[in-house]
Design a protein that fits this description.
By secondary structure, the protein is mostly helical. The chain has helices at about 10-15, 25-35, 40-45, 55-75, 75-85.
Length: about 90
Amino acid sequence: MAAGGPGDHPLKDLLHFNMHVFDDECDALIRDLSNYLSEAQLYDSIDWFVTFGMTASQLADFKAQLSQKLLALKRLPKIADRVQAGGKPTARE
């Protein structure tokens, strides 16, 4: 059973332990998504099981999916208004 420490889960590694997990771009996308989604929402919105042992092409597809999620979130009216005003969105919006 996982104890919740480093290496147990890629999302925890990124958000709680500031570890390098995928590549710089992918890690940054996930951290950026965490500004718009709660950790639970982010956990539920991605099939983390398939992220283990991804090939380069699978990683590229994963990054594209993350980018699409981020773009869609930024287009939500409440979030778009705050981003345009120069503020940082919160996971509760």
